[in-house]
């Protein structure tokens, strides 16, 4: 998955580069900045002293030293005032310049904290939105895996506040007992029906049954990509899918994706709900109102919103798995 939101300690991430939410001196501080300097050791501070500081929205690179990451990219986010002093543009610039620096050093994996959301006071929900929007835009033209690392999940528990309409949609549809009564009754009817009625008068041979197999998930996916006039790259990027995973799907007619992967392709292809259900069924899954994950995705599809990164923001806010592979 090219863009992932994860709960982790960024100093333990084994990636090509981690991003440090630094201050303009680059000489260490509190929060993420202090944690990275402690984990990297004193050599990091010695190198930072040679850089001459860093202006807000810009980024500079050092070695990782004792960190699992090869590099540390130091960037300075804006201090939140009221949102009317260019904070969003400066925050987006901090992400964009960090990503461009990572690409220039051929980094394939990069981990970001949620810049400016700590002592700099940027509202966490807005900080997350800027991060997702900026990173998503960058990934449309770059092959890279980016992690947004949230250290304390409880500090970001804003699902019902940020997405009140989705919370109401879930409440209206979520089956708390996780039981579809109609499906349960159908199963009972099946097992209590007379055997003669349940069996066809002349069962087909194995050869006939195999010959009647419908197209697989991979076949349907590739057909729909062609019908949509999309390239492979356009589709897997819109689906937040790694190129290597897409290659496996393309080369294996019997490939069985995970449910988040199948859902992601339905979103990327902008399928209406009935066609999304068909594609999901090919992978052996179905939409269920006993699953908050399914309900949230259904909410967006039903409203014609196929922005996978916005969907993933909502899924993260409600502590669900993200779309992608």
Automatic annotation (TrEMBL):
It comes from the Bacteria. CDD domains: Macro_OAADPr_deacetylase (cd02908). Residues 1-167 form the Macro domain. InterPro entries: Macro_dom, Macro_dom-like. Transmembrane segments: none annotated. PANTHER family: GANGLIOSIDE INDUCED DIFFERENTIATION ASSOCIATED PROTEIN 2-RELATED, MACRO DOMAIN-CONTAINING PROTEIN. This is O-acetyl-ADP-ribose deacetylase.
């Amino acid at each position: 998955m090219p863009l992932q939101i994860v709960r982790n300690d960024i100093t333990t991430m084994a990636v090509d580069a981690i991003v440090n939410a630094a201050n303009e001196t680059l000489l260490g501080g509190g929060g993420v900045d202090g944690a990275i300097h402690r984990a990297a050791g004193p050599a990091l501070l010695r190198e930072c002293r040679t850089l001459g500081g860093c202006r807000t929205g810009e980024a500079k690179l050092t070695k990782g030293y004792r960190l699992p990451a090869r590099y540390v990219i130091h960037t300075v986010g804006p201090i939140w005032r009221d949102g009317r002093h260019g904070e969003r543009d400066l925050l987006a610039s901090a992400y964009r310049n960090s990503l461009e620096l990572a690409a220039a050093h051929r980094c394939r994996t990069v981990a970001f904290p949620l810049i400016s959301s700590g002592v700099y006071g940027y509202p966490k929900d807005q900080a997350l939105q800027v991060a997702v929007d900026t990173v998503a835009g960058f990934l449309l033209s770059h092959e890279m895996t980016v992690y947004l690392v949230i250290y304390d999940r409880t500090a970001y528990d804003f699902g019902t506040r940020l997405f009140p309409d989705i919370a109401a949609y879930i409440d209206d549809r979520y089956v708390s007992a996780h039981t579809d009564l109609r499906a349960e009754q159908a199963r009972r009817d099946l097992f209590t029906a007379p055997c003669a009625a349940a069996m066809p008068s002349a069962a087909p041979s194995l050869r006939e049954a195999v010959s009647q197999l419908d197209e697989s998930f991979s076949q349907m996916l590739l057909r729909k990509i062609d019908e949509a006039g999309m390239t492979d790259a356009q589709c897997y990027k819109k689906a937040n899918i790694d190129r290597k995973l897409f290659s496996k799907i393309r080369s294996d007619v019997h490939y069985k994706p995970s449910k988040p992967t199948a859902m992601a392709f339905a979103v990327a292809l902008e399928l209406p709900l009935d066609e999304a259900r068909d594609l999901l069924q090919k992978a052996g899954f179905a939409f269920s109102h006993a699953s908050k994950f399914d309900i949230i995705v259904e909410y967006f599809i039903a409203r014609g919103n196929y922005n996978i990164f916005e969907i993933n923001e909502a899924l993260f806010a409600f502590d669900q798995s993200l779309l992608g592979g």
